[in-house]
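Sharing a chain and its predicted structure for anyone who wants a worked example. Both blocks are below, sequence first, tokens second.
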Amino acid sequence: MLERELLYAALGTGFTCLATILGAAMVFLFRREMSGVTQKVFLGFAAGVMVAASVFSLLLPAMEMAEEQGQSVGLAIGGGFLLGCAFLMLLDRLLPHLHIGSDEAEGLPAHWRRTTMVVLAVTLHNIPEGMAVGLSFAVAAQDPAAGSLAAAVALALGMGLQNFPEGAAVSLPLKSQGVRSGKAFVCGALSGVVEPVFGLLTVLVAGALTPVMPWVLSFAAGAMLYVVVEELIPEAHLGEHSHAGTVSVLLGFTAMMLLDVLLGA
């Protein structure tokens, strides 16, 4: 059973990683960096997708699973959620990284190259995404006939939609700063590789101990919402284009919600 769960998780996270790679490849087609408004729209859309995915693809299934296993729903969901938030907060404080458009690095002091820290910033965003997609496909592998496979596919499609511009958002600014196209593409692509890595690692942990699955699902939800609140929504509302960021968040939430409802029905 664990082998099938890992296979499903590898396929799902492989798709979202491929979307990031394809987005990074835009560096070979476009010379200019994304405009500020475009970046805010993409960030807002990603935030909306991740909020909806946290609720419909992670927290609700975790609640159902906890009830079926006779666990305390409040303890499993609340505890896992807070642990996920704390995990991302710890990584955010420790891992040196630099957000696109910022001149001040975050995390522990490190004399690393700017390109390395930019890639690490996006990598932080992709860790909970990989966990979420990997877990959803692992749940689907346990009982594909229950509609969970369609829900996992919906989640992968939603993450893929927001990963494509995310890959471009890494490679294009690097190119505009003088980085060669090939290197900028590799940096953007590498930011997505973390998704299958963490997706498979999470499935290994959850698959070995089935009772902790509700905790791990809510853990991934907490990690994703930390990214949304800490990074995506504030960046989507910077400057004077707040309406564009707001509308894109709502559109992202709606798109992910409809994907989950229509495919999971």
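Comments welcome. The chain has a mean pLDDT of 82.
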